[in-house]
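Look over this today:
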Amino acid sequence: MAETSVTSELQGMPQPRVSESRRIFKVMFSRWVVIIGAIIILLLIITAMFAPLLTPYEPNKVNLEDSLQQPSSQHLLGTDKVGRDVLTRIIYGSRIAIIVGVVAVTASGAIGMFLGLLAGYFGGWVETIIMRITDALMSLPPLVLMLAIAVMLGGGVPTVLIALIVALMPTYCRLMCGQVLSAKENDYIMASNVIGAGNLRIMFRHLVPNVFPPLLVLITLDLGFAILTEASLSFLGIGISPPTATWGSMVSDGQRYLLTHPILSLSPGLAIVLIVLAFNLVGDGLRDALDPRLRGRI
């Protein structure tokens, strides 16, 4: 009877509240695949930061005497047609992947979310103009749009960044506008209007923090998409120009040697697959963590 009484008292007591950050962390990393994805992304960042310390070779140095060597203790993944170490070029290619992915997604997200915020909050002719431009950009397949921009502007990192920003921006604009249209009807926004809060305060103090979680998930997923797109443009020869080490150009250069030296294409191709998969896994875990239906989950 005593144990039953104690149990009843414990059940009636309020349970300790789990902090929001701890809940998000627990839910996000509750699956081992998300942990693996996070580890792969962390390794990519470390590899890009310390690339000169991880290999004794120069990524663009030509050495025809070592042309098309098979993997060995000196060259773990062999060498390409002009004697460049394949592993070194993959390591340095991670820098391009991170730069292109982070800069393109950050810029397109910032521009798209700002335009979507203006369209959703002010409505009227502001929404009409912004949304019609967004609809026009979204009517074109992203890859076709990026190919057209790359052909017009030529190759190089700036061209790839511009192409990615233009292609990715409409999605952020559309999603932000929809979130703001829904959120601005809430009571706390109406109360802010009643007490005389300014438009900037309402938009950036109240609306943005409350509508940002779905956009954060999209940012995570688009990082992998941006890396894959840059590799696709470089593979087609209209992305980042040689001799800069990029994974897409390495796959393209090695395809003619698939029968004799398959590792020339397979190794950078595997790097692309792993990092895109990693960002998708982390984005999926983040979506679960920010899902309102999982608020009580620990």
Notes: DSSP finds twelve helices and no strands in the chain.
